[in-house]
Structure formats: C-alpha cells, structure tokens
Amino acid sequence: MEPILEVRGITKRFGGLVAVDNVDMKVYPGEVVGLLGDNGAGKSTLIKMVSGVYCADAGTIFFDGKEVKIDNPMQALKLGLETIYQDLALAENLDVYSNIFLGREKLKRFLGLVKVLDHSYMLTESRKVLNRLEIEVPSLRNRIRTLSGGQRQAVAISRAIYWDAKFLIMDEPTAALGVAEQKNVLSLVRTLSSQGVGIIIISHQILDVFSVATRLVIMRRGKKVAERITADTSPDEVVGLIVGSIPGDVPNGDGSDVKLSPVGASHAG
Amino acid sequence: MGQTSETSAQRTGAHVKRAVQTLFREYSIFFIFLLVCVVITSIRPVFLSVDNIFNVIRQVSMIGIMSVGMTFVILSADIDLSVGSVAGLCGALTAGVIARQGLPPLVAIFLPLPVAALLGWVMGIIITKAKVHSFVVSLGMMSIARGLALVYTKGLSIGNLPKEFGALGGGMVGPIPIPVIIFAAFMILGYLVLTRTPYGRAIYAIGGNQEAARLSGIKVDRYRIMNFVICSTLAGFAGIILASRTRSAWPAAATGWELDVITAVIIGGTSFFGGRGGMVGTLIGALFLGVLRNGANLIGVSPFYQQILIGTLVVIAVVIDRLRQRRTA
Bigger pLDDT: A176 or B75? Predict the structure, then answer.
C-alpha cells in the first residue's frame, strides 16, 4: 500500500536555529501515528510545514502518491489535509457555523447574478455534522467566545471532519478537555482511522497516544531520533527516548549513535 | 442534539427576539441616539422637518462615505489615518484637471480615483508585507498625501470651477441631495459585502483572530490590502464631492476629517480592536455626529461645547464596548 502522506528530508530553519532537521516520516491510510517529543523538539514546526503554515527550507512532501507543494494553508485544505491546532484556530467573535465554514463558505446565486453566502445551507450542514459526532452545542449561532473549552474543541474537530479529510493532524487534541470529552475524542480518532483517514496525533499525554496510535515517531531537538511500533515498546522506553536518556537509533537522527533498526530502515525509501 | 426540533413559527419568533436583542446589545448607542433626537425635537421642532433631516444627512454624507471604508479597515483591526489627506488630494486633482487641462467634469471626477486606490494599495502592501502597524504607515501617508496636494496646487486654492461640476455635491434628485444618494448607496453596498460575502466574513475573522483566519485558508494579506484600497478610494471620492460642493479646492481641504470618520465608526459600536461591529452601527454613528452638530446649532450651543459633547460620546461608546467585551469574555 502507498503511504497517504510521506515527508522526505524535510528541514526548517529559523535564523540560525534548525527547528526541524532532515526528518523522514510516512503515514499509511487508516494509520494513527503518534508524534512525540519534548517542548521545542520540532513537532509543531514539522506539522506546520505539512499544513502549509511554514514553507520547508528543504525536503519534499508526497500526498496520495504524488509530490505536492504546500505553500499556504488553503493548498493543504484543498488536498484534504485538515489540521486541528493546539490553540484551535477559531475566530472567537464569529458563531459556530461561520467557523465550520470559515475560508470555505458555501455560496449561492442571488437573482442569478451575484454569489452570496448561503447562511441556511451552512447552518443545516453544521447541525448535521455536530449531530453525527454527538456534539452538543447550545446554539449554532452562539459565538465561539461563549463556549466552553470542550465545546470549542468539538467545533474545531467538526470543522475538520466536515470536509471529508483524507488526512488529519491533531496537535494536542485532548489538552483542553475533561475526562469524558477526552474519551470521545479518542474514540473519534479510532472511528476515523477505521474509515481510512490517516492521522498524526501530537500529545503530551503519552498514555492517550499509546491507546490510539499504532506507530510512534519520537523527535528530539529537531531530529527524528526513533520510530517504534506501539505494541513493541513501552511508555518508559518512549519517555527515555524523548528526554534523551535512551539514545536514538535513526540514522542521521542523532549523529553520535548511528545504527539501523528494522523500522528505521524505512528511511531509505 | 436539541436543534432539530425547531418549528418555523418558533424560528420566526426566535428571529424577532434575536433582532431585538442584537439591537440592544450591539447598538445600545442607537437608543442614546433616539433619545438625543427626541430632546432636540422637543426644544426645536424644526429639527424633524424633511428639509432639516436631508440637511443633516447631506452634511454627514462625505464623512459617511469615508466611514464605510473605514469600517472595513477597523473591523480587520487596522486603522487608516490618511483618509482626510487623500480626500484633500483628490479634490485638488479634480479641480486641477478641470481648471488647468479643461477636462469635462464628468471625466475629471473619476480621474483621481485610481490615484487614491494606488495610495491605499501602497499602504496595504507595506502594512502586510513589511509587517508595519497600519497606524504608522497611514500616519506617514497622511503627511505624504497632504504634501502631494500642496505640491500639485503650489499651495494655492483653485476656484471658479464650472457650474456643471457643482452638480455632484450640490445637485438634487427630487427632494434628495445627490451626496445623500451616493452615501446611501455605499452604505447599503458596504452592508451587503459585510453580511453576505466571503470577503465580509474574512474581514470579521481577521479582526477576531488573524492567525485563525490565516490557518483557515483565508488570504489575510490580500483582504487587508483590499480594505485599504477601498477605504482610500472612498475617501478620494468624498474629497471630490467636497470640491464639487464648494466648486473649488484648496490644499488643506478635509484636514482632520480622519478623526471625524474614525469617531463615526467608533460611536457606531465597531470595536477598535476589530472583529465586532458593522455598517448599521456606522450609519448610526455618522448620523449621530451630524445630529449633534445640527441640534447644537439649532439650539444655539457654541461649537466649542459641541467638541466637548462629541468627545464625551466617543469615550462613552468605547466604554460600552469595553463592558460588552467583559460580559461576553
């Protein structure tokens, strides 16, 4: 099977700082990959190159088997590559349905001449997607500002789901949530992956990641230091890899101890 | 869950309720405005005569046209201080090409508009690409445009323009002054753009959370540049109307108007921090400005006190905005 998303040798520099250094990563359709690392390890920068926020300084991105150039967020969205950001990226002064359709408003012809916003269509569709996810929001006309953290998260998730994402990136999707809501999000991740959506999940909650991800990619100081099948590793080992007490094993990932592991071999591809 | 059981009767009821709530919440200034109108009328009934009402609207029409563009700019959390100078420059250019080149007025009134648009575009480019705050860039442009007007006119006023040129600012269609019609047309257009188009949605999103707007795929820079082009062009057009109304132009025309324009937008409840407000508020704000001046004149309040009144009103409007923010935060 072809990977749905593959990045090769991707690099991002901010001035003298190399935030992401020559990282390779693959995700197959329906696969959930956990992206782990300490603060400043380069996780967010890596995914922001995929979602079009940053332009990579080097490296290539393949999506659905084709090499793609993602220069801005709209190009990523048009490919079917949705992202739920850590800070949710909602316009808090706008209401729920305006946010779900933000940047991709549904238009209708007015008097056959000019195209105008189709408010009622957007309202109905938003209601459908929220119902499908069993998400309760007081009213779709409520401004995001008036919603709780969990409700905002729900809106951000439904926005990504509505557009039939082929690929979903979730940056700290459970950070703002209560326990029950966290469970809902994780079961949603499983549902989506069973529908063939490829998912990258970033989280500091290592146990959450273990419960949904089949493969883990661990970053440290901008480099990919290890890759593990979830079933073959333990939280202790992963924490060790994250903080550096266990040396990494990806070639080029950590200059000091280059050695090939079975998973690391995929690097050559 | 919970939203599926609305009947159409309930929905209509909810619509009305929401409209009233919105009017109270978003346009509390509207009720102060009505109160002021009632007070003025009770002292000087002539205030409510058709002639006087059109007189008030005609007086605010130029500020009003400019405030349509300014609403776009402020809603996106930007500011444009150059509108007064751009208006003065465009008035001078129109008058100049009529007086010096002898161009027909119908051509001359459109000629300066591309210049205004260009100035707005330049500001927009610098603000978005060099990431300089719009306050600073438009402050610079305020001085540049005024300087250009002085250079073009050599510091002298241009007078005795042909009668036909006066039609734009002084003409009437039936009982309605032409500037009032233009003002109304731009107001309605601005309202429709804000509420019915993706551009309008984008303006609110940018003002609310610029980063979120960008991540949602909105071309933030393009829309902000567009705002400045529109705001400048409308300012230029208002300046041309002013020149037409007086059938003359002088390099210092419309000096300080930027403050009136910003005042109208702010009194109208548009948040200075962007993302909240709209064209209905700006209409009320512009009319309020006109009513206060007109009413004060009718009653015989000195212009000095008018300044104090208007200043107080601006502060009240901003305080109301602040309180509203705190309540919904």
Answer: B75
H or E, element range at B284? helix B279-299
Write the single-letter amino acid at A18. Answer: V
Q: Which residue, among A74, A107, A48, A125, has the nearest Cα to B223 in the 3D structure?
A: A74
* Domains identified in chain B and CATH numbers: 32-39+47-328 (1.10.3470)
Rounded Cα gap, residues A255 and A258, in angstroms:
6
Q: Is residue A84 within 8 Å of residue A160, measured between CB atoms?
A: yes
Residue ending a domain, among A112, A139, A164, is A164
Q: Are B269 and B317 in contact (CB under 8 A)?
A: yes
pLDDT averaged per 10 residues in sequence order, chain B, 329 residues: 53 74 70 90 94 93 98 98 98 95 93 97 98 97 98 94 93 93 97 95 96 93 98 98 95 95 93 92 94 92 87 84 67
Q: Do A189 and A66 sit in the same domain of this protein?
A: yes
The string of DSSP letters for B184-219 reads HHHHHHHHHHHHHSHHHHHHHHHHH-HHHHHHTT--
A109 and A239 housed in the same domain: no
Structural domain for A192, as ranges: 1-80+167-269
A73·B216 Cβ contact <8 A: yes
Q: Which of A85, A91, A116 sits opposite B208 (nearest CB)?
A: A91
Residue of A nearest to B212 (CA): A89
Domain finish residue from A115, A139, A164:
A164
User: Of A87, A102, A136, which has the smallest distance from its Cβ to B2's Cβ?
Assistant: A136
Q: With pLDDT > 90 as the criterion, what percentage of chain A qualifies? A: 58
Contact A154, A133 (CB under 8 A): yes
The domain tally of chain A equals: 2
What is the pTM for the complete model shown? 0.87
Q: Are residues A140 and A199 in the same domain?
A: no
Give the Cα separation of B128 and B57 in Å (integer).
35
Contacts of B1 in chain A (CB under 8 A): 131, 134, 136
